[in-house]
Write a structure and sequence with these properties.
The chain is an alpha/beta fold. It is built from six helices and twelve strands. It has helices at residues 47-56, 122-131, 157-163, 169-172, 204-219, 222-236; strands at 7-11, 13-26, 33-46, 61-64, 73-79, 85-90, 109-114, 135-139, 152-156, 175-178, 184-186, 189-191.
Amino acid sequence: MGVDKHILVIGDSCQDIFKYCDVNRLCPDLPVPILNEKKEVRNEGMAKNVQRNILSLGYSCNIVTNANWQDITKTRFVHQESNHTFFRADSNEAMPSINLADVDYEHKMIVISDYDKGFLTKSDIETICGKHNNVFIDSKKVLGSWASGARYIKINETEYKRSKETITSEIQEKIIQTRGAEGCLFRGIAYSVTKAEVKDVCGAGDSFLAALVVKFLEEENIEESIKYANYCASQVVTRRGVSVIP
C-alpha cells in the first residue's frame, strides 16, 4: 500500500501478558491453587491491538497513543490445558493525556479506540470528529452528544445498556451494537454470526473494529462491512490469547 495514509488509530494502549500455567495442587494454608508458570506470551493491547489487526489485513495504519504503553500491563494467569483464566493483575502506571497536535487529519479514516483510561476526554473526541468526516468510535465512555460527530459508533451490549438513557435518535442511527455469539444490531437489523468454537474472547472487539473499518475503506458499504467484521471476529475467538485476524 506504499506510503498512503489509510487509517489512523487514536486511543490508549497497554501490553497484554498471558502467563500459561499448570496446576497440580492447592496451597496447604489457603484454599487457592498453586500455579506453575510454563509459558509467557506478550503482545500489544487495546488501541495498539486494533492497529496490529488493521496491519494484518494489509493496510497502512499509524497510531497516536500513550508512549508508556509497555509499562501499562494487563497480566492474565491462565490454565494451560483448559484455557481457564484464574485472575488478571493490572499495573498502576499513570495514563498521560493526548496531545491533539499529534493528530494527522490527512488519513482517509480515523478510528478512536477509547478504553477510557485517561488518554482521551469527551472533548478530545468531539474535537477530532469535528475535524474529520470519517471517524469510527469505539469507546468505554457513556455515550452523549460528544459522540454525535462520528461516522459510526461500535459498542458492545453491556456498554449500550449503560448508555441507553443518553443515546439520542441521531446517535442511535450510527450505533453498531455487538452481541458476542448473537452477532450485532444496526438500525434494527440483526446480523448473525457463524457459530464457532470459542477459546478466547480477549481482543475480539478490537478485531471486529479493525475489520469493520478496513472493509468500509474498501467499499464504503456499512452492511457489508458489518458482515465481514462478524466473520473476522468469529475467526479470532477460536484462538488463544489476544490474536490478530488470520
